[in-house]
Amino acid sequence: MNGYKYLDKKGTFQMENPELTSYLYFPIANEAGVMSSVTPSLGGDSKMGQNAFLLSPVSSEDLHNNKASRNFWCNISGKGLWSATGKSAGQQADLFTDAKEETILEAGIMWHKLLRKSRKFGITSEITSLVPYSGELLEIMVVTLKNTGAADLEIIPTAAIPLYGRSADNIRDHRHVTSLLHRIVTTKTGVVLNPTLTFDERGHQKNTCVYGVFGVEENGGEPEGFYPTVEEFIGEGGSFENPKALTDTNIQSQKAGFSIDGYEAIGGIQFKKILLAPKEEKTYIICMGYDKGQEELENAVSMYSSKETCVTALEETKKYWQDKINVSYSSGCKDFDTWMYWVNFQPMLRRIYGCSFLPHHDYGKGGRGWRDLWQDCLALLIMNPDGVRNMLIDNFAGVRMDGTNATIIGSKQGEFIADRNNITRVWMDHGVWPFLTTNLYIMQSGDIDILLKENTYFKDPQAVRGEEKDTLWDTAYGKQLKTESGEIYQGSILEHMLVQHLTAFYDVGEHNHIRLRGADWNDALDLADKRGESVAFTAIYGGNLENMAKLILLLEGKGIKELGFAKELEILLSDDNNLYNDVQKKQELLNRYCHEGIHNISGDKIFISCRELAENLLNKAEWIKDHIRETEWITGERGHSWYNGYYDNNGRRVEGDNDNGVRMMLTSQVFTIMSETATMKQVEDIVKAADEYLYNESIGGYKLNTNFKEVKMDLGRMFGFAYGQKENGAVFSHMAVMYANALYQRGFVQEGYKVIHSLYSHCSNFEKSKIYPGIPEYIGENGRGLYHYLTGAASWLLLTVLTEMYGVKGELGELLFEPKLLLSQFDSNSKAGVDCVFADRKLTIEYYNKNQKEYGEYKITSIAIDGKPYESVREMVLRDDIIRLDAKKTHKIDIVLE
């Protein structure tokens, strides 16, 4: 099997014979809503949402089961049918023989090109696919045919792209009935599908989306005829890989102006017969698209009616996305630098696709979840900080007064929706992420005043942390919490975070750790809602409380002596170790608080000094850490020690020695390390235990858990998965990267690097991972990367490599350098660098390790900006000095390590 090779530093790669690897797909999309996936044979799909699929929805298994593709046929006189995408019955049969055609894939950020050369037919095709960045709701194929034989070729070219044109729900639910809604017409250049109605979960509605496939010759020449229905195109006994219409002269193509109703549609576009002399070539432009009406769709298509306009669109689209990726690295490992370029791009893909619209991500109805909002902002803070402040503030509108949050995110920023299925579910980790992201924002920007900005609270029937309903709520009330006087209540961002953390602090199970409820970060720990507890996330809540207290003291340092909060929070601000140690009293206190605001709140305020509030939070944080240290540090029979992170629905400790073997979970270690609950000596012990029980170099590093050898119905559905897959023992990239981040934060640099290097080495080895560049959600037990592109791991890896490995970070708005680079990461000239943006200024930062010292031996001795020495303040450049730099230029910061 051949792997890929990089062609430049911007992520462009090339590989031979991509169709010999299963499950490959590539994303092309734009920010206007077009979301496509393209396989090496131009399979995949295109959609604008759950209810608007242009091409038939595909899951991962459909990639090799489906015969349909974005096909382009050549009926070559004297030789027969040849597919420019390789999707003919004959070409498929030749795949594993000496007659296999030569294929080369070339791809870059948001564009895909496939070259196919047939010695048998004497023809070569080059198909470039893109979605214009400029916002037209189109996917474009530029198809170039070239005669690479010795004799003239007489060819009848025909594009054949099946049109689905409805909701993904209809792939089986009323598939045939919804085809009866189809109204199909042919125009001068294509086939338009305009269903009369839509049948999906929204009910029967008048259709508002028109679909179409259009084609022209390179100079705008129009097609000869059309095959608008699948039934006619494939013919009796035919298929998409052997369509009868292209060989049976009794099946005639239709002319422009033809219409037919009630059939499955296809963009079958037959062009005029051509004669290609040796070395001569001909180009065709195929546009697939959507719009609210036929006229609007045709107007958009008309913008791409020549080869020249498409070439221009390709170059502009490339530049647009390249400009978006403003973080890049230079080190001793050039392939790692380029691989990270793809990782840096992945958070943008998740903002476009959500977590539902690529072949492996075949769940949900689209959009992003609560965690996605906050973790994607991590990448935005690094790459595109403009507008992040307002985004953060707006996102807090999803918090309920009981500390839980809306789980359905609207299409507009700050829009949250009451659950349409009336399903009550509480994820106990959801309160953690808003603070982590907001704290990073404050460190990067110095904007501590954001804590005082106000926003509303989300309101729907769910109350008392999912255990009761507000029977007085109705849609007329609205989705914002009100006071008893009927006014919409607003509280500070700090208040929102306090509500999230303090309610969690009291929401404990019998072992006095925070209840697991519906799940934590691991959604598959979903069967312990009664007695389950998450020690792991209790630890990070404790760490957050400590850091929140530090921010409050900074507010005090700015002259703010006291802060006002909703009167109801006075209950949660009780501060008594006897209370903290009493599970029942904590539960009763929480219940009393939740019932105070089950429908409305009073609207009254309390005021507390910053010093008193900070001490209150620090006491709670210290209690959490002490309690976990005292109760959850375990030592196995083989001498290794680590933290237990969970209790199951029978109230039993999950980790440690067991009759079925050792039980250890990576999540439990990540958050005890990150929160500094684990002492330095304990971190050393955890690393040894993780290396012993969780590390497997052959599959990319650290597994999420050991094999429990039990379908553990009292903890989560994950244990029903095969061991080594997804949440049950796979190398789950997200938590592995967070493990690296935690280790780097605590100064365990060699250990943190091992985590990242193991992941990179495996993912970039195509022979093993079988994926294009980037980081997948997880790596299966056979080494294959799965659920590629749409993973929060990318945001965390971007954050970790930039701020921890390269040590370029903010400290209350100042630019701090704290490199944790190993000697092996410097290039042959003893340099390592990063291009990034800080305080809206483009910077090239370069470290010089001229004495070739290892991490721990070197320190920063000098800093220069654009060649001028800078008097550093504790390895820091002040934000004011950064802002004084010319915003139109890229500035060089040279840092000498000695």
TrEMBL record:
The keyword Hydrolase applies. Keywords: Glycosyltransferase, Hydrolase, Transferase. Residues 320-543, 616-803 form the Glycosyl hydrolase 94 catalytic domain. GO terms for biological process: carbohydrate metabolic process. It holds the Pfam family Glyco_hydro_94. GO terms for molecular function: carbohydrate binding; glycosyltransferase activity; hydrolase activity. Coiled coil: none annotated. Residues 117-306 form the Glycosyl hydrolase 94 supersandwich domain. InterPro entries: 6-hairpin_glycosidase_sf, 6hp_glycosidase-like_sf, Gal_mutarotase_sf_dom, GH65_N, GH94_catalytic, GH94_Enzymes, Glyco_hydrolase_94_b-supersand. The keyword Hydrolase applies. CDD domains: GH94N_LBP_like (cd11749). This is Glycosyl hydrolase family 36. The lineage of its organism: Bacteria, Bacillati, Bacillota, Clostridia, Lachnospirales.
